[in-house]
Amino acid sequence: QVQLQESGPGLVKPSETLSLTCTVSDYSIDRGYYWGWIRQPPGKGLEWIGSIYYSGSTYYNPSLSSRITISVDTSKNHFSLKLNSVTAADTAVYYCARDNGSGSYGGWFDPWGHGTLVTVSS
Amino acid sequence: DIQMAQSPSSLSASVGDRVTITCRASQSISTFLNWYQQKPGKAPKLLIYAESTLQSGVPSRFSGSGSGTEFTLTISSLQPEDFATYYCQQSYTTPYTFGQGTKLEI
């Protein structure tokens, strides 16, 4: 069954760029589906960041779109998130998940990675 | 953005109880509504998608209903493993948005 695993630094300095990768196992990304990023600040709720199709088509949350880039590498069967100019408000557990929607609508998330805590601090 | 509001924010219940959680959308979202369960330190788990379709492997005591702007998640007979936080999520349009969560406590 499909498994997802986030990886990347757990500590990022303010104003720098947060970079995470989600490696997908037991399923080839280029078979289809969108793939998404969702984050959860400590003790708070969930926020959708954006989703990408294997072809590279992306949908971003407008609240973050000026700072984010989501990319896909089908040869490595992974997709990535870059969030620049981070502040303490970007401290969160970052999850990757398969987005079962059609891009701009219909998306539910399953399965999810375990999540990775990224702390923004000097 | 479509705002999602859950009620109550927290709920105390006992094993065997029937529990209902409500999710309201700021505009009509047809049946584009999904429910997740999250336990401490774990990733959310999809329970129900498209308002009432039970995800594979989810016990039948979970059910979803509603349309338009008001939706409910019902647990027919609470089990010890059901004590968790529940989130609704609209998938009518991006940006996808989640409710603030309902913490179900013993």
Structure description:
The complex is a heterodimer of chains A (122) and B (106). Chain A is an all-beta fold and 122 residues long. Chain A has strands spanning 3-7, 11-12, 18-25, 34-40, 47-53, 58-60, 68-73, 78-83, 92-99, 109-112, 116-120. Chain A is 0% helix and 50% strand. The model of chain A has no long low-confidence stretch (mean pLDDT 96). In chain A, the strands form 2 sheets. In chain A, strands 2, 4, 5, 6, 9, 10 and 11 form a 7-stranded mixed β-sheet that branches. In chain A, 39% of the residues are buried. Chain A is globular and about 40 Å long. Chain B has strands at 4-7, 10-12, 19-25, 33-38, 45-49, 53-54, 62-67, 70-75, 85-90, 97-98, 102-105. In chain B, a hairpin with a 3-residue loop joins β5 (45-49) and β6 (53-54). Chain B is an all-beta fold. The mean pLDDT of chain B is 97. At the A-B interface, β5 and β10 of A face β5 and β10 of B.
Biggest chain pair interface: A-B, 26 and 25 residues
Strand percentage of chain A lies at over 45%
Order of helices and strands of chain B: EEEEEEEEEEE
**Count the helices of chain A. How many?**
0
The low-confidence parts of chain A are: none
The succession of helices and strands of chain A, N to C, reads: EEEEEEEEEEE
Instruction: Give helix % range of chain B.
Output: under 10%
According to DSSP, the number of beta strands of chain A is 11
Percentage of residues in DSSP E strands of chain B: over 45%
Q: Short summary of the structure?
A:
Chain A has 122 residues and is mostly beta strands. Chain A has strands spanning 3-7, 11-12, 18-25, 34-40, 47-53, 58-60, 68-73, 78-83, 92-99, 109-112, 116-120.
SSE order and pairing:
The complex is a heterodimer of chains A (122) and B (106).
Chain A: E1 3-7, E2 11-12, E3 18-25, E4 34-40, E5 47-53, E6 58-60, E7 68-73, E8 78-83, E9 92-99, E10 109-112, E11 116-120
Parallel strand pairs in A: 2-11
Antiparallel strand pairs in A: 1-3, 3-8, 4-5, 4-9, 5-6, 7-8, 9-10, 9-11
Chain B: E1 4-7, E2 10-12, E3 19-25, E4 33-38, E5 45-49, E6 53-54, E7 62-67, E8 70-75, E9 85-90, E10 97-98, E11 102-105
Parallel strand pairs in B: 2-11
Antiparallel strand pairs in B: 1-3, 3-8, 4-5, 4-9, 5-6, 7-8, 9-10, 9-11
